[in-house]
Design goal:
Helix content is 61%, strand content 12%. With 292 residues, the chain is an alpha+beta fold. The longest helix has 53 residues. One of its GO terms (molecular function) is RNA endonuclease activity.
Length: 292
């Protein structure tokens, strides 16, 4: 799909090997594709697999992948690890016996055992290979949802770009029309200035000066190039694959042509149209930079 934003979000859950894997994929604008994966330390060996999975689905953007793994039965059912409980009871009795000489009551020993870091219980571990299938399934589903969100946002951005391109095309047509009237407006201004100065008007010489002046400020080539850029933009929006970089280049060229027209022309009507065109192009640039 041609129009795809670089902003999106997806979330998915999968289960396997008695574990529940939750995956979140968040994407924002970036010049290139940058994937950051946040995995529990014991499954860090799966990071490259996650990265490749995301890279196969996206071409540009900053992608943050958040993965959490927990026992699948941690919610909804209460379970007692009787062996662990027996071990803790023996540990408490041993602590009471060892500290009896200090006069500490059993309640005090129990309270200190609850102090953070005093009592440590090893967490259940699952080999990466056992959880790999569920983990990658969750990441793939979350990444697909993020891609779908990027596509929906991209369509809205491209629809807005097409509307702005149509507005710019009207401005370019107005520039062409305004340029056609420049010689006559120049002749009229020069005639008025000569008359105000009390000088006689030599029509032949007047037209000669008008033609020379108008030729220096001619914008025909810039207008043609602007129309060509608009055609290129329309073709890019109608094509397949990532278009953000291409659109960014096209919009820069449009800005360059408008700057040239503004620098060459001293006609007020053209100057106003150049300002209007620059406003539209700047809005287009902001939208193009959001596309993949």
């Amino acid at each position: 799909m041609a129009c795809c934003s670089m902003t999106g979000y997806g979330q998915a859950v999968a289960e396997g090997a008695g574990m529940r894997v939750s995956a979140e994929v968040r994407t924002v604008n970036h010049r290139f594709l940058e994937v950051a994966v946040r995995l529990p330390r014991e499954w860090i060996s799966l990071e490259e697999d996650v990265r490749k999975l995301v890279q196969a689905r996206m071409a540009r953007g900053r992608v943050d992948v958040y993965i959490a793994v927990e026992p699948a039965d941690a919610e909804g059912r209460a379970r007692v690890d009787w062996d662990l409980l027996a071990s803790l009871c023996r540990l408490e009795a041993k602590a009471v016996s060892r500290l009896a000489s200090s006069g500490m009551a059993p309640e005090g020993v129990r309270a200190w055992l609850q102090y953070p870091g005093v009592l440590q219980v090893a967490a259940r571990t699952v080999p990466p290979d056992e959880v790999r299938g569920a983990l990658l399934h969750a990441v793939a589903a979350a990444a697909d949802k993020a891609v779908q969100a990027r596509a929906r946002e991209g369509e809205r951005l491209c629809a807005d770009l097409r509307a702005k391109a149509a507005a710019l095309a009207e401005t370019v047509q107005a520039l062409r029309a305004a340029a056609d009237g420049v010689p006559e407006r120049l002749r009229q201004r020069l005639r008025e200035r000569l008359a105000a100065a009390g000088l006689d008007v030599d029509e032949a010489r007047l037209w000669q000066e008008v033609v020379l002046y108008a030729d220096r400020g001619a914008i025909d080539e810039e207008v043609v190039r602007l129309q060509s850029h608009l055609a290129e933009l329309a073709a890019a929006l109608a094509g397949d694959g990532p278009v953000g970089r291409r659109l960014d280049f096209i919009v820069q060229e449009m800005q360059r042509e408008l700057n040239t027209i503004g620098a060459k022309s001293t006609d007020a009507a053209i100057s106003r149209l150049v300002v209007d065109g620059k406003v539209i192009v700047e809005q287009m640039r902001e939208q193009a930079q959001n596309l993949e």
